[in-house]
Amino acid sequence: FYLLLLSVCCFARNQYERMSSDVTMQCGSLDNDASVSWKVNGTDVKAQHHLEGPRLMLTGVDLSHNGLYSCFQNPHGERRDTIFLHIGIPPREPTVTCRSNTYPKGFYCSWHQLHPTYIPTTFEVDVQHNQRSLEVQKDPDHKNRCRVRFPEVFSSFPYKVNVTAVNALGKASTTISFEESSIVKPDPPERVTATPIRFNARRLEVSWHSPATWPDIDNFPLKYFLRYRPLIREQWQHVELSDSTSHTITDAYAGKEYIIQVAAKDTEIGTWSDWSVAVHATPWIEDPLPITSTTEVDFPTETKTSPIPSSNAPQKAEPPVGRAARLLTFFSPLLLGMLLLFMW
């Protein structure tokens, strides 16, 4: 079915209609008194409609009415016409911006619609400078972008860019004018790195490269703007630099992680670039001393007696006495008495 539908689409004629409008589709060149039936995408038309001879009428169409409509002449059901219905809206004035990130080579302009049109829409671009049209090159990588070469540098004549959006339901245009110097805006610096400095607990060495898209850094130098803050705070610190591509932060909080970004700008004209990709770094932290592990050894200890033992202190034990000594001690008075009686 889908292959058949695709083959029919190749021979169908396109009909574009505005959203919310009432639509009439004519079945070929049939007379007003012809009797026909209609199908959409191969099935009966279910949307609100009515027939007037060879005409199908739809009321208040929306995107759900998009599809391939076919009409068949009664009573034999011979196909007489095929119409591809597209519902959309006319374009509105496009939003247009221009910028030079490759100064002094040229600039680009980009545009977009704030609201979708739902049908194919093309854009026509015209660039004027000093009463003549400039060559416009469509960007191969971006659909709604073109590039223009500067015809001269340091021109005092303004540039005028007109972009017209066109589709089957209408057209709309936007025109902007600008001075050469006002659109110069480099891309952000690249390859930003931040490195702790050994034995310096409050310093970070930051370096970066100028954007690769900036074509002539020697004759058109850039200046840079550095911002940094610890993650524990919301307030940024800023440093503006000339053409240097490195800077040493000297007031970092010891042991705190920092977030760092850099922007670039032509030294004389234009505006600052967007911020570079953020990098994170922490100042140098001294490695803690290793903890030495020791094995406990039992050494004989000397027992010390308190000068004034408390009443609860354990008493000093008597030395052990042998069994014979205890017997002698018990019988010695008795033996002495028997000896005295014998002498009498």
Automatic annotation (TrEMBL):
Stored SMART domains: FN3, IGc2
Chain positions covered by the region annotation Disordered: 291-318
Gene behind the chain: cntfr
Domain of life: Eukaryota
Keyword annotations of the record: Glycoprotein, Immunoglobulin domain, Repeat, Signal
Signal sequence interval, chain numbering: none
GO cellular component: a single term: membrane
Family: Belongs to the type I cytokine receptor family. Type 3 subfamily.
Chain ranges of the Ig-like domain: 1-71
CDD domains per the UniProt record, alphabetical: FN3
GO MF terms, alphabetically ordered: cytokine receptor activity
Pfam families, alphabetized: fn3 (PF00041), FN3_IL27B_N (PF24031)
Annotated ranges, domain Fibronectin type-III: 90-187, 188-288
Entries under InterPro entries matching the protein: FN3_dom, FN3_IL27B_N, FN3_sf, Hematopoietin_rcpt_L_F3_CS, Ig-like_dom, Ig-like_dom_sf, Ig-like_fold, Ig_sub2
The species this protein was found in: Dicentrarchus labrax
Biased composition (Polar residues): 291-314
Name this protein carries in UniProt: Ciliary neurotrophic factor receptor
Gene3D superfamilies the record matches: Immunoglobulins
